[in-house]
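Sequence and structure are no longer studied apart. As an example, we show below a sequence and the tokens encoding its fold:
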Amino acid sequence: MNRAHLDWPFFDPAHGELAASVDAFAATAVAPAGFAERHPTSSDVDAACRSWVRGLADAGLLRYCVPAVFGGALEKLDSRAICVVRESLAYHDGLADFAFAMQGLGSGAITLAGSKAQRARWLPKVAAGEAIAAFALSEPDAGSDVAAMTTRATSDARGWTIDGCKTWISNGGIADFYTVFARTGGDGSAGISAFVVPADTTGLIVAERLDVMAPHPLARLEFHGCRVPRTALLGDEGEGFKVAMRTLDVFRASVGAAAVGFARRALDLAVRRARLRRMFNGRLADRDLAKAALGDMAAQVDAAALLVYRAAWLRDVRDARTTAEAAMAKLVATESAQQVIDASLQMHGGVGVMTGQLIERLYREIRALRIYEGATEVQRLIIGRQILDNAGPYGL
């Protein structure tokens, strides 16, 4: 994997050392035999994901998901470190990246807004791989439009009762706890609150496992009179939407980093294919069309990486709110990676569409990244709204 970008001014020397440690881990830690060569069952996926969580914890990589005071590697969440880990893991294995990312996303709201007791209970377990985390935000009719959620939490003297449905929940069915967002007030974003709900809470049901083209643990959750104590409230009542958006500001750029990792792997595969494939009394690499395609791919990878690490650097170093920058990073990186992977598959010819080929798996993996944590269309709306609201450097 080309590491030249780690010499960019966005990084400290420690980030380069971290990337090398991730590569060393990924070189020896692989998914179960045959996992990539067939469409695995839910139990296969669950076992593989748990295995990755255990391996990532043993390698010390999950410590980058939480602050040092709770067993983390750094004093506070470092967006550049999270992005470096995700890019490196995605280059090697999409499910490994997924396992790392969900530990961070699922616990991120606790890091940012949790009480001391909530942080002390869950974050050390996340870092040690002893608890699998999940982020339960989306609903059947409230995915991109989060403010339209209908899951409701009502309070009484004993605590909260949650009723409703969540879907497309990553780690659904294997998580030990869920960060759940529910309506506690009126309509709109101001009426949403966040809760930490252990997976074994009575009334929380894994109603359906969802089988997708790039297998990950996904599920639809139902809440039927799910009772949690008053201490389950995460942050202040009515602040859930803000908590969700703050969490996504941290981890949305890292989705772009994962896309860059997929794209770098596809580019490397294309270069190898071009050098080895014989055609018309020469090599594919000797053809101008192939050179031009590789040039476009390389430019797209670097452009995406620049946006990803700009967003991460602004948050880490300038302590800036990066809603627009993170949206740009995810938008450009995921869309560019789709184009790079498609071009690489095209250069592979018929081999590229054979089940079990790495480039075919990358083609399936990248498609989901253009949707989750805010689809491409939503990122465009976020950026446009930031410009119109005169937010940050984009105001006129």
Observations:
- The chain has a mean pLDDT of 92.
- The two ends are 40 Å apart (CA to CA).
